[in-house]
Amino acid sequence: MTTPARGSLLSIEHLSSKDIGTLLQLARRMKLERPRSLLRGKRVGLLFYETSTRTRASFEVAAKSLGAITTLIQASGSSIEKGESLVDTGATLHAIGMDILVVRHPNSGAPHLLAQHLDIPIINAGDGMHEHPSQALLDAYTILRHKKKIAGLQVAIVGDIFHSRVARSNIHLLSKLGAKMTLCGPPELLPELAATLAPGLNLVRHVEEAVRGADVVMLLRVQKERLDGLKVHIYDYVTRYQMTPARLKLAKRDAILMHPGPAIRGLELEGDLADGPQSVIREEVKNGVPVRMAILARAAGKAR
Amino acid sequence: MTREMTRAMTTRNHRKGNSLLIKGGHLIDPAQNIDEPMDILLRDGNVVEVTLPNKTRGSADDRFDARGLIVAPGFIDLHVHLREPGQAYKETVATGTAAASAGGFTSVCCMPNTNPVIDSVEWVAWLLHPDRGAVVNIFPVAAATLASRGATLTDFRALHRAGAVAVTDDGRPILDDKVMRDALRLSSDLNIPIVQHAEDTRATEGCPMQEGPTSFRLGLRGSKASAEADIVDRDVQLAQASGGRLHVAHLSAGDSLKSVRRAKRAKARVTCEVTPHHFTLTDADIRDYDTRYKMNPPLRSASDVQAIIAALADGTVDAIATDHAPHAAYEKNQEFDRAPFGITGSETALGLAITRLHKDHAIPLSRIVALFTSGPARVFDLHNELHRRGTLAKGAHADVTIFDPKKRWTYDAAKSLSKSHNSPFDGWQFTGRVVATIVSGRIVYQN
What we know:
The complex is a heterodimer. Chain A has two domains: 17-131 and 288-299, Aspartate/ornithine carbamoyltransferase (Rossmann fold); 134-284, Aspartate/ornithine carbamoyltransferase (Rossmann fold). Chain A has eleven helices and nine strands. Chain A has helices at residues 17-29, 54-65, 86-96, 110-117, 133-146, 165-176, 207-211, 224-229, 234-241, 245-248, 281-299; strands at 43-48, 69-74, 100-105, 122-127, 154-158, 180-184, 202-204, 216-219, 256-258. In chain A, the strands form two sheets. Chain A has a five-stranded parallel β-sheet with strand order 7-6-5-8-9. In chain A, α6 links the parallel β5 and β6. Chain A is globular, with a radius of gyration of 19 Å. By secondary structure, chain B is an alpha/beta fold. Chain B has two domains: 3-71 and 396-446, Urease, subunit C, domain 1; 74-379, Metal-dependent hydrolases (TIM Barrel), CATH 3.20.20.140. In chain B, α5 packs across α8 (226-242) and α8 packs parallel to α9 (254-265).
C-alpha cells in the first residue's frame, strides 16, 4: 500500500482550508472561452461505475478544454462486467498510459483503494455515500459568486443527508471555511450521528427553523425508493420538508437556493422554484467546468 | 515454504530423544495454582515430573534452558479458520497450525465454515488425518446444522465421537429460536457445547462495520452492537431453560457481557471468548477504508473495549481466542463493502495480550496464562481424562508454551507462517514473545 499520488483529490475532509482556497482561486482563472493547454498530451481516464450526466460531461469538457485526451470506461461494455476487480481495472488503465483517473463508484472508498495501488493522481467524482469533492468545490465557487466570503454565512442543508456524498463534502468544506451550518431532515435521513462529522453542526427537524435567516439554502435529492425502504411516507416528507416559496421567504432576502441535481421537481422543491430568481441551480452546473479544470490542472502538477 | 516453517518442521523431525527437561523457568500453571520457579520433565509425550528447581529425579535426553522465561501449559485457541477443505489458497491445516505454533498455541479448534461445511463424520476424520500435516493438535468444531443452513441439526453424538469437541454454525448464527432450543437441549443431554456466532443477521445485512462517527464519516452502513447483544441475551435464556451448554464466540459488545454475567451468577452453563483485536482496536482504527480492520463481529467503540478488558480481568471471559481468519491479498484489496471479513491472529495474540492487558492494564500474567490455557480447556472439556490439556500437572500431555514476557519485538506480517498476511498489526511493536512451542514433548517452534 502506498500513499495517494500527489494531485489526487479523494475527499474534502483531508484538504486544508488553504488547499481549498488555492483550488477555488485556480478555478477563477480557468476560462472556457480561452482554452489553456495545461494538459496537452495528457491522458485522462474517466472510470464511471455509476451513471452520471453532469459530473461526467463536465469532467470531460474540462479535460478537453485543457488539451487532454479523454477515455471513458463504463461498467457496462467493459471488463468490469466480466468480473475484473477495481484494482486490476485501475492497473490496466495505468498500463495503457492514463496519467489521471477520474472515478465515480457506487462503493464508498473506491477511489481510496485505487489511490493505494496506483501511483497516478486519482480524482474522486463521487463514491457511494462518502464524498463528492468536485461538487462541494463548485458549490463553494458558486456561493462566492454571490457572497463576499463563506466565513460567517448561515448555510442550511435540507434533505437526505445520510445517503448523500454531496452533503458530506459540503459539510466538510463549508465548515472548514467558517460557515455556520444547519442540517435539516427527518431522523431516518439525518441521524444524530451526523453532528459528529464536523465541529459546530446544528441539527434541526423543522425546515422553517433551518431556513430562517439563512444566506444559502441547499437542497438534496430525495430518492423515492429510499424513503419507501425507510418507511418514510412521501406525502409526509413533502409536507414537512419540501422547499416552497413561503418557506424560502424565511431565509435572508438575498439568500440563494442550491441543488446539486438532478432536482426532482415536486419532491424536494416546489416545481417552479428551481427557475426562480434565487435559484443558482443552473449556475452550479456551469461552474462545474472551471472547477474541474482546476482540479485536473492541480492533478497534473500545473496548479499555478 | 518459508525459512521459519522449514525450521519448525525440521526441529520436529530431528528430535534427539524422547525426554526433555525444561530447566530454570518460572512456571505459571493456573489449573494447579502454581506461579513460581519450577523444573519440568517431559517423557514420551507426557509430563512426568514438576519439581522445585534442580529437584527432578529422572534423567533427560535433552534440556531446555528456560532461565528468565515463563513456562506455561500449551496455549489453546478455541477459534481458528484453517480453511480446509475447499479454500487452501487462503490457508491449509499445515500452514494454519504452523502459524499457531509460532503464536505459542499447541492446540487449535478449527471452525466448520469450510467448503464443503464440516457437518459429517467423514469430514471430521479427514481433518484429523495425519496427511493434513498439522504441526499442533487440532480439535475440530463441527457444524451444528446441515451445511450450516440453520435448519436441521447435525448428528451431534456421531460428530462428537468422531472427534469434534463442539458444534457451531460459525460465520453464521443459529437464528431460529426452535433450532437453537433443540440444539441446546441436545447439548445438555450429550454434554457438548453449542458455539454461537451471535449476530442478528437481519439487522446487519449490508453493514461492513459498526455504526458510529466513523461509519457516518466514511459513508458506510453501520450495524449496532445490539445485533450481537440481543442474540446473546436470547441464547442465555434458552441455555438456562434447557440446561444446555452455550459458548459465545468472539464476544465483542459490552452489552453482551451483561447477559453472560447474569448467566454465570445463575450458574448457567455459559462461557465466552474474546479476540485480541476486540480488546485492542476500535472502529475509528479503520481510518480511511483499511480493509485489514474489517472483521465480523466488527470493531466496536472505546467503551466496548473498556468493558471487555474489565471482563477479561474479572473472570467473566473464559478464554482469549484469535478468530484467525486468513484471506488472500486480492480478496482484501477490494472496495470496503466487498472485502471479506476477518484477520489473521495466531502470531500476534500473546504479544497483544501482554502489551495491552498486562503492561497497559496491569492484568496479572497468571490471569493471561489462564485465558490461554485452563480457561479454554474447560470450555471444550480439553482438561478431561481423555485430553489432559490446559495444565502441566503430572500425567498431562506434554504440551508446553515458553515465552519471554519482557521481550520487545516487531511483527512483520510478510514473514508470517500463515498463507495469508491480512493482519492489521503488521509493523506493530509488542512486548512478550513466544520462545518455544512444545507439542507432545517435541519442540515444534523455536525462536
